[in-house]
Known about the structure:
Elements: H1 2-39, H2 43-70, H3 77-80, H4 84-90, H5 95-127, H6 129-134, H7 146-177, H8 183-208, H9 220-244
Helix pairs in contact: 1-2, 1-5, 2-5, 5-7, 5-9, 7-8, 7-9
Amino acid sequence: xxxxxxxxxxxxxxxxxxxxxxxxxxxxxxxxxxxxxxxxxxxxxxxxxxxxxxxxxxxxxxxxxxxxxxxxxxxxxxxxxxxxxxxxxxxxxxxxxxxxxxxxxxxxxxxxxxxxxxxxxxxxxxxxxxxxxxxxxxxxxxxxxxxxxxxxxxxxxxxxxxxxxxxxxxxxxxxxxxxxxxxxxxxxxxxxxxxxxxxxxxxxxxxxxxxxxxxxxxxxxxxxxxxxxxxxxxxxxxxxxxxxxxxx
Length: 248
């Protein structure tokens, strides 16, 4: 397993590093522009700073998530849809180790991007109060608490779940419907039903425990446990399909 992790990291480390540098540069530009807006009373500079801040928040909240999911090292696209997939099939490494290794490196990649965003937001929360006032932004500067920790862990678990859903869906698509007419529509339907199932399960769970975000946030741990179980089941299904049905 360790050799698989080393190999996957070696393959993807350059892309991870370059993407992380781009993210860090955008966050740094945002901090500099916000600082300048606090020094100079210029509406133009304030507008530019607000745009940079919006870009950084969008990149950290949405962009990093989808980049890591669809272009990251945890995606099975490279072994299912690229020419190298056939060669990988001939490597004497079990699919269980191969897929798990990819998903672990994919999770590591997302955590790197997520950690950069947390560092950026930590600076804004603890050092940027005067800057935000200069921009007339309504930002609450509260200390991090255990609720924030739970939220961060929840985001990571959610990434694991969505990564598992997508990899399972792509493997089902490759196994059964790749050469079928309108196969991509079938793939979209598979993904939709899997996400719908998870959403319905989450809704049922929240109704059972009468969940309230303010009073019962620690109950999210139970929900995260359910998500991990679903992810493990999907991982097992992905490995079995890759071994038995995927024919590249």
